[in-house]
Amino acid sequence: MSKGQDSGRLYPAEWQRGPRYGGAYSFARCPVTRDLSRADIAIMGVPMDMAVLYRSGARFGPRAIRDASGQLRPHHWESDKLEPPFDTLRVIDYGDLDVFPGYIEQTVAYLQTQLAAIFDAGVFPVILGGDHSTTLPVLRACAAKHGRLSLVHFDAHPDFWPSSDPKRPVHHGTVFRIAVEEGLIDPGSSVQVGIRGSVSAGILQEVRTAGFNLITCDEFARQGVDATLRRIREAVSYPVYLSLDIDSVDPAFAPGTGTPEVAGMTSREIVELVRGLRGMNLVAFDIVEVAPAYDAAEITALLAANLVYEFLLVLAIKRSSTQANT
Fold first, then answer.
1. Domain 48-75+82-324 maps to which CATH number in 3.40.800.10, 3.90.930.1, 2.40.30.10, 3.40.50.2300?
2. Which of 31, 47, 160, 230 has the fewest CB atoms lying closer than 10 Å?
3. How far apart are CA 33 and CA 160, in angstroms?
4. Is the pTM of this model over 0.90?
5. Selection from 310, 307, 289 nearest residue 134 by Cα
6. String of b and e for 81-114 (b: at least 16 CB within 10 Å)?
7. pLDDT digits over 43-53, tens only?
8. Measured CA distances, 123 to 7, 43, 145, 277 (Å)
9. CA-to-CA distance for 294 and 281, rounded, in angstroms?
10. 5-44 pLDDT, tens per residue?
11. Helix (H/G/I), strand (E/B), else coil: 125
12. How far apart, in whole angstroms, are the C-alpha atoms of residue 294 and residue 204?
């Protein structure tokens, strides 16, 4: 539907109107609103990093990703094949969800409540984190709406550690153990891609024993993008939650993160992996652990912004295909 056919619909501000570094503070100049009746997709930030075990700073990730999105345009390289996502989907910037600095359990519980309203409205959430504990309340709200989920997880770390302190059960490395224990995800139909490094080495056997389909970064390097995507498609059987930790990418391409690991994916590889999820039954997406204090020339934030845009294209293609078949 063209802009002229729907005068009441909200669209991103015209990209040629004024400098890209001016205007409203929103992702890719998307309209800022909390009116969910006017949205198919809601981009929202979760500015928290209370759960990190090493370097903090991911609380500023949402702001950095939005700032970097100023370089995006409403076009795509494959313009003969793909419409801009904003022509197909009503995309809004919902702003940031409320958090309580220093109170992680209260924050996680309140985030779940806020996200439940998004899912109940039938709006697809795109989450800008935040450290990886951000994922837990989204998973809880998502599973409450869609039932048990398949997880597709790009990360250097499996985030499957048990809590070492009962007074602090949640940190960014416990998220998917908690998700399995609560029945939010089915490990047998979930895939973790890009795992590597000495931090992860000590937990790999537990992850495999739990039933996850684990593709280490060494395996990924040997088999490539296409084989990895085939394995993902063969594994998933429930609605798919995509969680993308920016440290899945090598610090040469994404230095701005709290727990960097060498010998990771390239920016091209992670873009191709996201593009390869076209057609899957996706129900939620988060991109986490962007810590701009450690970034260089904004390359991490720029990559994250482009990955969000690529994901929006994946959703737009899905919507176009669904409409063509009805």
1. 3.40.800.10
2. 230
3. 36
4. yes
5. 289
6. ebbbbbebbbbbbbbbbebeeeebeebbebbbeb
7. 999 999 988 87
8. 21, 10, 11, 19
9. 34
10. 465 788 888 766 777 777 778 999 999 999 999 999 999 9
11. strand
12. 28
3-state SS assignment for residue 100 = coil
Is residue 194 within 8 A of residue 217, CB to CB? The reply is: yes
Residue 36, token pair as written in the block: 């969910």
What are the boundaries of each domain within the chain?
48-75+82-324
Q: How many CB atoms lie within 10 A of CB 169?
A: 13
Tokens standing for residue 76: 């795509």
- Number of helices followed by number of strands (H, E) in the chain: 10, 8
Taking only the tens place, the pLDDT of each residue in 130-144 is 999 999 999 999 999
The closest alpha carbon to 149, from 186, 175, 181, 116, belongs to 186
Phi-psi region of 206 (alpha: psi -120 to 50; beta: other; left: phi over 0): alpha
Q: Which two tokens stand for residue 39?
A: 């949205």
Structure tokens at 174: 């416990």
DSSP 279-299: TS-EEEEEEE-B-GGG-STTH
